[in-house]
Amino acid sequence: MTKRSDCPISNVLDHVGDKWSLLIIRDLMFFGKHSYSELQNSDEKMATNILSSRLEKLEKEGLIHKQKDEQDKRKKVYRLTEAGVDMLPIMLEMIMWSAKHAPETNIPNQLVSRVHTDRAGLIQELTEQIHQQP
Amino acid sequence: MTKRSDCPISNVLDHVGDKWSLLIIRDLMFFGKHSYSELQNSDEKMATNILSSRLEKLEKEGLIHKQKDEQDKRKKVYRLTEAGVDMLPIMLEMIMWSAKHAPETNIPNQLVSRVHTDRAGLIQELTEQIHQQP
DNA sequence: CATTTAACTTTTAAAATGCAAGTTAAATTA
DNA sequence: TAATTTAACTTGCATTTTAAAAGTTAAATG
């Protein structure tokens, strides 16, 4: 997506304004997924060519990076960059929106109350967890 | 967009996971735009048929509603519902992301510092402003 | 050595997007 | 009051993107 304007919101959408990119980031962020095949097995079942093109785009835009797996040379390890990890507050607010307006979704309950009582601490804690992922 | 999974993030993307929907919400929220022609004149220049189909989708999904303009019978007035207004924290975090990672965009500066010092107060204040829009 | 696994790529049909032009009702201007 | 303009769309069509299925390649496993 080429830059459409100087708006900061439009800018974020230029990176992740589609149905799939944020789900990839979600899986890397919350579910400890780091390989292509793990990413392919999400509930939403994204097509493999779309996954491939999104990974390429996200890497080119600096939200994720790809390393070789030294144990298994067939594998690639996908990880969030700092810019990718910094999508966390956006994701949290999406969860909060659904907690209010789509409570039938799978809301992680302690997370919602924690956002209200200790937002900054929660974000710091989750950020550390993301960095400590194997 | 039909429901893809029970994930709260996926759910939000089912509503606004495209390049345009959140820009419409942005214009209604921050720029006091309320008519079709105003929405059409954003910097990003969305095509009129896309604007039309997104307005229809957002209305069907309960994020905006459409009223008749009693002064000018040609006009329709578009407004955010509560669910639409509640997208505000997501938008704020997008601005914050760009403030950090795309500082060349037009960041409203006092807003960024205010998010750090008084997030809850800011959101309440902006929410009230949105409701008071003419 | 044969099979499986991981990470893709390719093909092709269907759907969405973008652009230009057209339509309709209401308001404004001459 | 007739002609023009404005607002909110809709339509048609070419281009792009997505989705689904099948195929490829290198590395690991039995």
From TrEMBL, chains A, B:
Residue ranges that the Swiss-Prot or TrEMBL entry lists as coiled coil: none
Domain HTH hxlR-type: residue ranges: 7-106
UniProt superkingdom: Bacteria
UniProt entry keywords in alphabetical sequence: DNA-binding, Transcription, Transcription regulation
Molecular function GO labels: DNA binding
Gene3D superfamilies with a match to the protein in the record: Winged helix-like DNA-binding domain superfamily/Winged helix DNA-binding domain
The keyword NAD appears for this protein: no
Record Pfam families: HxlR
Descriptive protein name: Putative transcriptional regulator
Natural source organism: Pseudoalteromonas luteoviolacea (strain 2ta16)
